[in-house]
């Protein structure tokens, strides 16, 4: 089976016997069934990163990072996480027999935390982390110092912290560019911007090796965490930290500028721009992905599509363009938000004759 190590020439060197495999990468790129038509597009595709082993694209990062730890005989992985990086690291550390200790964003979804705990990670939620820029900076600073003292790398999924692991995320772009058809646009959701930057850098790196058309890479952020998208859209060169993140979307609450400036430079180079979406629009597209396409994603996984919808409204894409929206994480990651956003009924048990009359009423 093809996995991320297929691209090992473009990845950090890891001896074969240290390469961890849990089924990461080689995710499906499927054509939209009805949302494309709804938006008047003939070539809309979804890249299903929710199908990675722990339910998000962060597995591509963790697979590389933890394999490197293993190859160096390290026994501890110390990390910060808004949920998905932690779950991914916890899983690969479990597979490698490495102790995984995680400082988690305040308010991260319970289901993400339980997942980390079942993999055996040590979990600590820090008050204000991910919400307040000062606290967030302090947590990163503390772990950076502690990691340095222990001579271990800090696996924050951003190039500004962990270039090696992010090379794993670039494989998303390689998989897209390897397809027979060429693509005009890739829409990426962004918190700190590492994912968007990995996709843009992946496109550039692949284009240096093979004669392919390079798509425009766009960065989509919720308005409550607009550190990059607005600046990119307005042709500014610098991302801006915000005092507090107010989006409800787990995974995209990153008030600090991690890879922001580099995202702006790379997206601009590839002709991409920024899109800002509000949380309610995102929940609407999350529901439509489930109901119209059969794709169950967490809110962050619907952000790229919400950004594309804005691009369609603004006539910034053409009807015949081939477009990829990244679906970055699984719906199972955040069942609480499903509960609170969609008003789904709590079931009361009924008897058999009630069941029968309900089914008859549908016919
Ligand atoms: C981490 C994450 C993102 C955003 O990635 P950044 O590198 O912070 O921009 C998007 N979606 C999901 C599901 C994530 O876990």
Description of the structure:
With 363 residues, this protein is α/β, with parallel strands linked by helices. 40% of the residues lie in helices and 13% in strands. The chain contains 14 helices and 9 strands. It has helices at residues 35-38, 58-71, 84-96, 110-118, 133-149, 163-169, 171-177, 194-209, 229-233, 260-269, 279-293, 303-313, 335-342, 352-362, and strands spanning 29-31, 43-48, 76-81, 99-104, 122-125, 185-189, 216-222, 274-277, 322-327. Strands 1-2-9-6-7-8 form a 6-stranded mixed sheet, sandwiched between helices. Strands 3-4-5 form a 3-stranded parallel sheet, sandwiched between helices. Helix 3 (84-96) runs parallel beside helix 4, helix 7 crosses helix 8 (194-209) and helix 8 packs across helix 10. The longest helix is centred in the middle third of the chain and has 17 residues, at 133-149. The radius of gyration is 20 Å and the shape is globular. The relative contact order is 0.14. The mean pLDDT is 95. Pyridoxal-5'-phosphate (PLP) binds next to helix 8. The site of pyridoxal-5'-phosphate has 20 residues, from helix 8.
Order of helices and strands: EHEHEHEHEHHHEHEHHEHHEHH
Number of strand elements: 9
Mean pLDDT: 95
Largest sheet: 6 strands, mixed
Number of helices: 14
Distance between the termini: 44 Å
Low-confidence segments, given as residue ranges, are none
Identify the bound ligands.
pyridoxal-5'-phosphate
Percent of residues in β-strands: 5-15%
Report strand order across the widest sheet: 1-2-9-6-7-8
Output the structural class: alpha/beta
Overall 3D form: globular
Rg over CA atoms: 20 Å
- What share of residues is helical? 40-55%
């Amino acid at each position: 089976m093809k996995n991320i190590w297929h691209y090992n020439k473009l990845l950090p060197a890891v001896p074969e016997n240290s390469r961890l495999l849990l089924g990461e990468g080689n995710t499906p790129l499927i054509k939209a069934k009805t949302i494309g038509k709804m938006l008047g597009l003939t070539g809309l595709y979804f890249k299903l990163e929710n199908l990675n082993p722990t339910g998000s694209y962060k597995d591509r990062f963790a697979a590389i990072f933890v394999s490197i730890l293993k190859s160096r005989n390290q026994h501890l992985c110390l990390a910060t996480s808004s949920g998905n990086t932690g779950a991914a690291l916890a899983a690969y550390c479990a597979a490698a027999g490495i102790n995984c200790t995680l400082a988690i964003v305040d308010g991260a979804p319970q289901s993400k935390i339980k997942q980390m705990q079942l993999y055996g990670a040590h979990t600590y939620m820090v008050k204000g982390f991910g919400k307040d820029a000062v606290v967030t900076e302090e947590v990163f600073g503390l772990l950076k110092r502690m990691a340095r003292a222990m001579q271990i790398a800090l696996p924050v999924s951003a190039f500004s912290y962990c270039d090696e692991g992010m090379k794993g995320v670039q494989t998303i772009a390689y998989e897209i560019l390897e397809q027979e058809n060429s693509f005009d646009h890739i829409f990426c959701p962004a918190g700190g911007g590492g994912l968007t930057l990995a996709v843009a850098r992946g496109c550039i790196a692949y284009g240096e090796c093979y004669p392919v058309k390079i798509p425009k890479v766009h960065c989509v952020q919720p308005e409550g965490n607009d550190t990059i998208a607005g600046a990119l859209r307005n042709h500014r060169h610098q991302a801006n930290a915000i005092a507090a993140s107010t989006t409800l979307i787990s995974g995209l609450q990153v008030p600090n500028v991690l890879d922001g400036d580099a995202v702006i430079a790379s997206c601009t180079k590839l002709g991409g721009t920024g899109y800002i979406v509000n949380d309610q629009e995102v929940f609407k597209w999350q529901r439509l992905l489930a109901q119209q396409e059969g794709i169950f994603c967490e809110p962050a996984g619907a952000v790229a599509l919400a950004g594309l919808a804005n691009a369609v409204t603004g006539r910034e894409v053409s009807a015949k363009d081939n477009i990829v929206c990244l679906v970055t994480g699984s719906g199972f990651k955040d069942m609480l938000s499903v509960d609170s956003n969609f008003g789904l009924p709590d079931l009361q048990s009924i008897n058999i004759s009630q069941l029968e009359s309900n089914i008859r009423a549908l016919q």
